[in-house]
Amino acid sequence: MNFVLTEEAIGRITGVLDDDLLGSGASCALLVDSSGYLIANRGDPAGMDVVALAALSAANYGVTEEIAKLVGEDNFSLLFHKGKNESIHYTKIGEDFFLITMFTKEVSLGLMRLKTAKVKRELQPLLDGEG
C-alpha cells in the first residue's frame, strides 16, 4: 500500500481526534494502519509505548478478522476490551486503517461508540484520498 498524507490532512486528523474524542473524555486516540504503523497519536497514554501498542493492536485486529471469518463474518467492525481502570475501543476505518480509543471507567462505552462513529465518518474521506 502506497499512501501519503499531507501536513494539512494530518492537521485535520489530529483536530478531529482532539475535538471529538479527547474532548469527550478519551484519554488517548491513535490512528493506525493495518500493518501497525502509527499515523496519529493524541492524548496522554501515561508513558505507554504507543508504537508498541499500535503494532500489537494491528496484530490483535488481524487475528480478530480471522476469527470473524471462522464464524462466517467478513470482519468485525469494532473490537472492545474492558479493563478495571482503562478500556480500549477499536474501530475499523476502510480496509487499511483503524482507530484505537482509550478511556477510563468514568467515560461510558456508549458515548465512545457514538464519538468514534462520527470520527470514522469524518476521517474516511481523508484516508480514501478524497480530502
What would you note in describing this structure?
This protein is of the alpha+beta class. It is 42% helix and 25% strand. The protein has a 5-stranded antiparallel beta sheet, with helices on both faces. The radius of gyration is 14 Å and the shape is globular. The protein starts with 6 loop residues before the first helix and ends with a helix. The mean pLDDT is 90.
The CATH architecture name reads: 2-Layer Sandwich
CATH classification class = Alpha Beta
How many structural domains can be distinguished in the coordinates? 1
Following the backbone from N to C, one meets helices and strands in this order, namely HEEHEEEH
What low-confidence regions span 5 or more consecutive residues with pLDDT below 50?
none
Taking all residues together, what is the mean pLDDT? Answer: 90
Pairing-aware structural class of the strands and helices? alpha+beta
CATH fold assignment:
Beta-Lactamase
Helix content: 40-55%
Shape: globular
